[in-house]
C-alpha cells in the first residue's frame, strides 16, 4: 500500500495563552513539541508583560532584547528551513511560504519591541508593543503557525524516508522470495540485511520520538516481529532452497514472509497515522479500562446529577460483565475464581440498582439525607467494582504464573527436536498435538492478561504476545515436519532451532510482562503511572463528608499549563535516562524512577487529571517527592565514596539537590489561606519540582558515566541491541541524500530555536 507522508499532519495544537498554531496541524512528536516550547515561552512573556504606567530602562531593554532574540533565532531557523526546501522539491513551495511568513512575523515582533527609546519625545508616534498589543498577538500567532508548519513539513520528510526505506525492503523481499539458487540468495540477502538495518535505525528513532505511548508500544511490537523474523527468513529460505519439493518447508517460509509484510505495513500505518481503506482502528476494550471509565462516571455524580442517563451507566456495566465471561467461560479458570467472579458480577448489578434508585430520588429532591445515601451508594458501587477488578486480576495472573512455571522446561520443544532428527513422523505428530494444546493455553493466558494489564502499552504487548504464539506454534510444527522428512538435513535442524528459540524467547518475555502487570496493579511501577504514595481513595471514608476538596478552576489551570508541559517533558527525559541503565535495581535508578512518576502525577494535576484531585493532594505529593530527592542525595554521597573522577562535582550536585528538596518541602508544608495564596503555593511547588527534575536530568547521565568508569569496562549502560544500527556506520553514509535530513532536519531546527534566552516575568 502506497501511503502519502502528507497524512502526518492532522488536527490542531494550541497553547493556553490563546496563541494557537495552525488549526490544520497536529504535533505528534516530542522533537517538534520541545522545539516549540521555548518559542511559546518567549512570546507569552512578551504578550503578558505588565502595562505599568512607569517603565524602567531595565524593563524596556529586557523587552527589546527578547524581541531581537526571537527575530534572530527565527532568522537562523528559516535558513535551515530553506535548506530543507532546496533538497526536497516536492515540499519546496509549502516550505518556502512558511519560511517567508516566519521571517516576516519575526521582523514584525522585533519592530514592535523596539522600545528602548520609548520615553523620548521624538518616539511618540512610534508604534510599539505598548501601543499596539493586538499587532503583537497577530504577529505571534503568525509566527507560531508558520514555525509549526516548517517543523511539521520537516517531520514529513522523516516519514518519507521511512516509507522509502520500507519500499526498498519490500522490493528486496520480493526478490528473495523468487530466488532459485544459493549464490543468488546469499547476494540478495546481504543487500536485504543492510536495508533492514537502515529501516531499523529510522523506525527506532521515530519510536522514541512519538508522543503517543500507545503508538510507541505498537511500533515496538512491529519492530520486534521484524527483528525475530529476519533470522527466521534466512533459515526458512535456505531450507526451502535445500528441499524445493518439500511442502512443509514452503509453508514455513511463506508464513515468515507474510508476517514480515504485515509488520512492515503496521509500521507505515503508525508513522503516517492512517489505516488501509480508511477504516478506523477498533481497539478491544479491557475489563480494567471498562471499570476505570465506569467508576469515573459513578464518582462524577457527586459533582453533577444530570450529566448522564441511568441507561448509559447500565450499558457500561453490562459491557464489563460481558467481558468477565472470558474468565467464567474459560476452561483454564479455577472453580474458585469462577464462583467469585459470578458472585461479584451479581453484586455489582444489585449495587447499581440501589445507586440508580437513590440517584433518581436525589434528582427530584436534593435533601441532605438523600445526598448522604447517594454518597454511600457511590462508595459501595465503586468498592464492588474494585473487588471485581482484583478478582479477575488474581484469576489471570495466577493462571499465567502456573502456565509459565509448567512450561519452563520446554519438554515438548526438546521432544520435537529429538524425534525430528530421528525421522520419527508418528512421534512428531504426537508432539505437535501437544504443542498445539500448549499454544491454546498460552493464547488464552494472553487474552486474560490483556483484560488486567492496566495500561494501553501493556495491553498492546499482550496482544503482540498472543499473535506471536498463534503464528509461531504452526511454524514450529511445519519446521519439525520438514526435519522429520529430512532427518539428516543440517539446515532443516537449524531452522527448527530458530523457531523454537523464538518460542522460548516469547515465554521469557511473558514472565517479564507478568511482573510489569503485577507492578502496575500494586502501584509500584509502570509506564507513565502516577506514584501511589498518597492515601488511596476510600481509605479514609469516615472523613469524606467533613473535607471539602479544593480544586483549581479553569483559569488557574491555564496559568500553570506551561509549567506543567515543561514538567511533562522533563519526566520523559528522566525516563529516557533511567532506561539506559543496565542495572534497573540500582538505588539511584529506583529513586529517579519514583521521582519521575511523582512529577508526572503533578503534571496530570495541572491538566485536571490523575489521582491528585485537590491542592492538598498536590502538596502532600510534593513533600513525598522532596523526601525521595533527599534519599537520592544520600545515594549520591554513597556513590562518591566509590569513585575518584568528578567526586567534588558529584558532592556539589548532591548538596544542591538537598538544598532544593528542603526548599520544596518548606513550601509544601507552609500554610496558605484563601484562593490566591493557595494558587501561589501550587505554582511555587510545581516550579520547584521542575527545578529538581532539571537537576535530575543532569545527574543521571553523570552517575552512569562514573559507574561505567568505576567498573572498568563492565558498564552500566545497556549494549546497543542488534536490531538498532550501529551509530558509527552512519558516518560512512553522511553524504548520501537520505542522510542529509540528519544535517538539515528537526534536530537542527530545534537547536536554533532553543538557543533563545528566556526573559522571566517580573
TrEMBL record:
- Which residues, by range, are in coiled-coil regions? none
**UniProt KW Cytoplasm keyword:** yes
Q: Which GO terms describe its molecular function?
A: actin filament binding; cadherin binding
Compositionally biased residues, Low complexity: 7-18
Renumbered residue ranges of the record's region Disordered: 1-20
State the InterPro entries in the record. Answer: Alpha-catenin/vinculin-like_sf (IPR036723), Alpha_catenin (IPR001033), CTNNAL1 (IPR030045), Vinculin/catenin (IPR006077)
* Keywords per UniProt: Cytoplasm
Q: Name one GO cellular component term.
A: cytoplasm
Q: Keyword Metal-binding on this protein? A: no
Localization, per the record, is:
Cytoplasm
Q: Which sequence ranges are marked TM in the entry?
A: none
PANTHER family named among the record's database cross-references: ALPHA-CATULIN (PTHR46342:SF1)
User: What's the name of the protein?
Assistant: Alpha-catulin
Q: Tell me the organism.
A: Brachypodius melanocephalos
Amino acid at each position: 500500500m502506497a501511503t502519502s507522508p502528507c497524512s502526518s499532519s492532522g488536527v490542531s495544537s494550541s497553547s493556553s495563552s490563546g496563541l494557537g498554531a495552525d488549526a490544520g496541524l497536529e504535533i505528534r512528536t516530542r522533537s517538534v513539541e520541545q522545539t516549540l516550547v521555548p518559542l511559546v515561552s518567549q512570546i507569552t512573556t512578551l504578550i503578558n508583560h505588565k502595562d505599568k504606567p512607569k517603565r524602567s530602562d531595565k524593563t524596556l531593554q529586557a523587552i527589546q532584547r527578547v524581541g531581537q532574540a526571537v527575530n534572530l533565532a527565527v532568522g537562523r531557523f528559516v535558513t535551515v528551513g530553506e535548506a530543507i526546501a532546496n533538497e526536497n522539491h516536492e515540499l519546496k513551495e509549502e516550505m518556502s511560504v512558511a519560511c517567508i511568513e516566519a521571517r516576516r512575523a519575526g521582523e514584525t515582533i522585533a519592530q514592535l519591541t523596539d522600545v528602548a527609546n520609548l520615553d523620548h519625545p521624538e518616539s511618540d508616534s512610534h508604534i510599539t508593543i505598548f501601543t499596539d498589543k493586538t499587532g503583537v498577538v497577530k504577529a505571534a500567532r503568525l509566527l507560531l503557525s508558520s514555525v509549526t508548519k516548517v517543523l511539521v513539513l520537516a517531520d514529513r520528510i522523516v516519514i518519507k524516508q521511512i516509507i522509502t526505506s520500507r519500499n526498498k525492503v519490500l522490493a528486496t523481499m520480493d526478490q528473495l522470495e523468487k530466488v532459485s539458487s544459493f549464490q543468488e540468495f546469499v547476494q540478495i540477502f546481504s543487500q536485504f540485511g543492510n536495508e533492514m538495518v537502515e529501516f531499523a535505525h529510522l523506525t527506532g528513532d521515530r519510536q522514541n520520538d512519538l508522543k503517543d505511548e500507545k503508538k510507541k508500544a505498537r511500533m515496538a511490537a512491529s519492530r520486534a516481529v521484524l527483528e525475530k523474523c529476519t533470522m527466521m527468513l534466512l533459515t526458512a529460505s535456505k531450507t526451502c532452497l535445500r528441499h524445493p519439493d518439500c511442502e512443509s518447508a514452503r509453508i514455513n517460509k511463506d508464513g515468515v514472509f507474510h508476517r514480515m509484510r504485515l509488520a512492515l505495513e503496521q509500521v507505515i500505518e503508525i508513522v503516517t497515522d492512517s489505516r488501509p481503506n480508511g477504516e478506523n482502528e477498533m481497539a478491544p476494550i479491557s475489563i480494567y479500562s471498562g471499570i476505570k471509565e465506569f467508576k469515573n462516571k459513578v464518582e462524577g455524580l457527586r459533582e453533577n446529577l444530570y450529566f448522564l442517563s441511568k441507561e448509559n451507566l447500565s450499558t457500561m456495566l453490562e459491557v464489563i460483565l460481558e467481558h468477565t465471561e472470558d474468565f467464567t467461560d474459560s476452561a483454564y479458570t479455577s472453580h474458585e475464581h469462577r464462583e467469585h467472579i459470578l458472585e461479584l458480577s451479581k453484586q455489582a448489578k444489585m449495587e447499581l440498582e440501589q445507586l440508580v434508585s437513590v440517584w433518581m430520588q436525589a434528582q427530584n429532591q436534593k435533601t441532605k439525607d438523600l445526598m448522604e445515601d447517594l454518597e454511600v451508594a457511590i462508595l459501595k458501587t465503586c468498592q464492588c467494582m474494585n473487588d471485581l477488578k482484583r478478582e479477575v486480576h488474581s484469576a489471570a495472573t495466577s493462571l499465567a504464573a502456573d502456565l509459565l512455571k509448567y512450561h519452563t522446561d520446554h519438554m515438548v520443544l526438546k521432544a520435537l527436536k529429538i524425534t525430528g532428527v530421528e525421522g520419527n513422523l508418528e512421534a512428531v505428530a504426537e508432539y505437535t498435538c501437544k504443542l498445539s494444546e500448549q499454544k491454546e493455553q498460552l493464547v488464552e493466558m494472553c487474552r486474560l492478561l490483556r483484560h488486567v494489564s492496566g495500561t494501553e502499552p501493556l495491553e498492546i504487548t499482550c496482544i503482540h504476545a498472543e499473535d506471536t504464539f498463534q503464528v509461531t506454534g504452526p511454524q514450529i510444527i511445519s519446521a519439525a515436519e520438514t526435519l522429520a522428512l529430512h532427518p539428516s538435513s543440517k539446515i532443516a535442524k537449524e531452522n527448527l532451532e530458530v523457531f523454537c528459540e523464538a518460542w522460548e524467547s516469547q515465554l521469557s518475555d511473558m514472565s517479564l510482562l507478568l511482573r510489569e502487570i503485577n507492578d502496575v496493579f500494586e502501584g509500584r511501577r509502570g509506564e507513565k503511572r502516577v506514584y501511589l504514595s498518597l492515601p488511596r481513595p476510600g481509605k479514609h471514608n469516615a472523613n469524606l463528608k467533613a473535607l471539602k476538596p479544593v480544586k483549581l478552576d479553569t483559569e488557574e489551570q491555564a496559568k500553570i499549563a506551561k509549567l506543567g508541559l515543561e514538567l511533562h517533558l522533563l519526566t520523559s527525559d528522566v525516563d529516557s535516562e533511567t532506561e539506559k541503565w543496565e542495572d534497573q535495581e540500582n538505588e539511584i535508578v529506583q529513586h529517579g524512577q519514583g521521582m519521575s512518576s511523582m512529577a508526572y502525577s503533578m503534571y496530570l494535576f495541572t491538566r485536571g487529571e490523575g489521582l491528585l484531585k485537590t491542592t492538598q493532594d498536590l502538596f502532600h505529593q510534593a513533600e513525598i517527592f522532596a523526601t525521595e530527592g533527599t534519599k537520592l542525595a544520600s545515594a549520591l554521597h554513597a556513590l562518591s565514596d566509590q569513585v575518584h573522577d568528578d567526586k567534588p562535582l558529584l558532592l556539589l550536585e548532591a548538596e544542591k539537590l538537598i538544598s532544593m528538596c528542603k526548599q520544596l518541602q518548606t513550601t509544601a508544608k507552609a500554610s496558605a489561606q484563601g484562593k490566591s495564596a493557595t494558587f501561589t503555593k501550587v505554582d511555587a511547588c510545581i516550579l520547584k519540582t521542575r527545578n529538581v527534575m532539571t537537576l535530575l536530568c543532569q545527574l543521571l547521565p553523570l552517575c552512569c558515566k562514573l559507574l561505567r568508569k568505576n567498573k572498568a569496562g563492565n558498564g552500566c549502560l545497556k549494549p546497543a541491541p542488534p536490531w538498532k544500527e550501529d551509530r558509527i556506520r552512519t558516518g560512512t553514509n553522511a553524504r548520501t541524500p537520505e542522510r542529509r535530513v540528519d544535517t538539515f532536519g528537526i534536530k537542527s531546527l530545534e537547536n536554533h530555536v532553543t538557543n533563545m534566552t528566556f526573559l522571566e516575568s517580573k
